[in-house]
Design a protein that fits this description.
Number of helices: 10
Low-confidence stretches: none
Helix content: 25-40%
Order of helices and strands: EHEEHHEEHEEEHHEHHEEEHHE
Strand content: 15-25%
CATH architecture: Alpha-Beta Complex
Mean pLDDT: 92
Keywords: Plasmid
Protein name: DUF707 domain-containing protein
Radius of gyration: 19 Å
Organism: Paroceanicella profunda
Pfam families: DUF707
Number of strands: 13
Shape: globular
CATH class: Alpha Beta
Number of domains: 1
Length: 300
């Protein structure tokens, strides 16, 4: 039976993707497409599809790949775009895809283990939950429904550094509530310190300015949320819960975890914000962002 999902991985000499393949091939529900920016490095024979060589950065390479092979977005149900410094437990990639399909999500990401290098505490694993609904999914390892990725492609092509995409890509669908989530049941370890990968050197070499992309995206849309929020969830038991309980449990967990994570102050601040919003913003639901009149992008 053909596999219904695809992992598209940009890889180099020190990539961790071989650990992902510890899962027996017969048990996987995903194919692996390797794409390298380092054609002189040895290896890269383990993919299920022919190796792609592209000296660009992550997202502009992805855009070129799928523009040249649009039929792949009809073949697969979900596509994951992981960074190459992530460590998955055996079987968790298959489980991640299965949960995205089971829960009817359009975009999601695995939660980060507390020992990870974490940009935003909201994506840190909260073990009481199977998943938490959110208005934010980071570019580190998004899982995107293939049909929805077709919608995102023009935005990625316009702003190919990826900076700022996480502000909008959970909010471009007409009814975004309960369509995006952080999946706590399948956490992943992020092993590399933030902003230290080869991609940041490539930006300068290729004349790409991520801060310009970030600024332009924020100027091009109305209705961007002022904060990264959770507003509901599914407990590990399978019980669906609302914003008040989700923010309360998540906030208390982060307060307890703050002393043992790298970003202690930021984690405490996020926790207190969640506890406050459990009372003041318990009716919050995300809504579709609108493009500014002069932009002409057509999201609104």
């Amino acid at each position: 039976m053909p596999r219904r999902n695809l992992v598209f991985a940009r890889v180099g000499r020190n990539s961790l993707y071989r650990h992902w393949l510890s899962e027996p091939a017969a048990e996987r529900n995903w194919d692996l497409q390797l794409s390298t920016y380092d054609p002189d490095a040895p290896g890269f024979e383990e993919g299920d599809l022919p190796l792609s060589v592209d000296r660009g950065t992550k997202w502009d390479s992805i855009c070129r790949y799928f523009r040249e092979r649009p039929w792949l977005l009809d073949r697969y149900e979900f596509v994951m775009f992981p960074d190459d410094d992530l460590f998955f437990d055996q079987g968790n990639i298959t489980r991640l895809f299965a949960l995205c399909a089971e829960e009817g999500l359009d975009i999601a990401q695995p939660a980060l283990l507390p020992s990870s290098y974490v940009s935003y505490p909201i994506v840190m694993q909260c073990p009481r939950f199977r998943l938490r609904y959110t208005n934010y999914v980071e570019p580190m390892t998004p899982v995107i429904r293939a049909s929805y990725f077709k919608v995102l492609l023009p935005y990625l092509e316009r702003w190919p550094t990826g900076w700022g995409q996480d502000d909008i890509w959970t909010l471009l669908m007409p009814e975004p509530a309960f369509r995006a989530a952080v999946i706590d049941a399948v956490p992943v370890l992020h092993t590399r310190p933030l902003y230290t990968g080869d991609i940041y050197r490539h930006f300068e070499t290729l004349g790409m300015d991520p801060r310009h992309d970030l600024s332009e995206i924020r100027e091009s849309f109305r209705g961007l949320p002022g904060a990264k929020r959770v507003y509901g969830g599914v407990l590990a038991s399978g019980t669906k819960v609302g914003s008040l309980l989700t923010n309360t449990l998540n906030g208390l967990h982060l307060l307890r975890a703050a002393s043992s994570v790298r970003a202690r102050y930021g984690t405490q601040k996020t926790a207190l914000g969640m506890l406050l919003r459990s009372v003041t913003r318990f009716r919050y639901r995300p809504s579709q962002v609108q493009t500014t009149p002069a932009d002409g992008l057509g999201a609104g």
